[in-house]
Amino acid sequence: MATTADFKNGLCIEMDGSVWSVVEFLHVKPGKGAAFVRSKLKNLKTGRTLEHTFPAGVKIDLARVERRPYQFVYKEDENTYYFMHTETFEQIPIQKEMISNPGLLKEGQEVEIMYHVDTDSPLTCELPPFVDMEVTYTEPGVKGDTATNTLKRATVETGAEVMVPLFIETGEKIKVDTRTNRYSERVK
Fold first, then answer.
1. Closest Cα partner for 24 from 47, 8, 6, 3?
2. CATH code for 130-186?
3. What per-residue confidence (pLDDT) applies to 51?
4. What pairs with residue 165 in β-bridges?
5. What pLDDT is attached to residue 144?
6. Which of 30, 35, 79, 157 would suit a FRET pair with 145, their CA atoms being 20 to 30 Å apart?
């Protein structure tokens, strides 16, 4: 058991028979009335987000979750991805909806799969915050177009599209933020 004072981003709680992750929270103490905690929660099974207000100090049930290291092996069809545990070499199928950004997933990619300990079932699959990708196609930049902070579309090796600055060319390696699907920097 915990209280709302223990809230932090990424905390997993059980509520209404589901496992939820705290995305954002804010402790509010109005001038009149009791304090409360305004929070944004994400359902780890469905991916649905919900805004919920808790009275300050109310008891909440913590979900027992465990992060396990896996490696992406292959994609069977549009919705089924297979991952191998890096220590036991056991392979498991994961549905596309459970993966944080499937467009940036390439063979051999290391990921973390979050498991609900009580049921031993996978909840989500998270990519590392940044991945290195090779640009397979982008329109050539025109010399002199660098005065503004303009972006253009680029296709990376997995087929995903990322907006990149005009100076990025086909064949270059870039670092992509998997949480926002945005260009971060060039890889040397």
1. 8
2. 2.40.50.140
3. 95
4. 151
5. 61
6. 157
Placement of tokens 């220590």 in the chain: 87
The domain segmentation of the chain, as residue ranges, is: 2-62, 65-126, 130-186
Burial class of 17 by CB neighbour count within 10 A (0 to 12, 13 to 18, 19+): exposed
Reported pTM: 0.78
CATH class of 2-62: mainly beta
Phi, psi of 114 (to 5 degrees): -90, 125
Which amino acid, one-letter code, is at 139? E
Name residue, tokens 């996978």: 122
Confidence at residue 168, expressed as pLDDT on a 0 to 100 scale: 86
Phi, psi of 45 (to 5 degrees): -85, -50
SS3 41: strand
Examine domains 65-126 and 130-186 and report if their fold is the same. Answer: yes
pLDDT in tens, 93-109: 999 888 888 999 999 99
Specify the DSSP class assigned to residue 102. G
Residue carrying structure tokens 């059980």: 14
**Residue 90 pLDDT grade (very low, low, confident, very high; cuts 50, 70, 90):** very high
Give all strands of the β-sheet with 59-62 in edge-to-edge order: 2-3, 59-62, 12-15, 18-28, 36-43, 49-55
- Tell which CATH classification among 3.30.70.100, 2.40.50.140, 1.10.1040.10, 3.50.30.50 matches the domain 65-126: 2.40.50.140
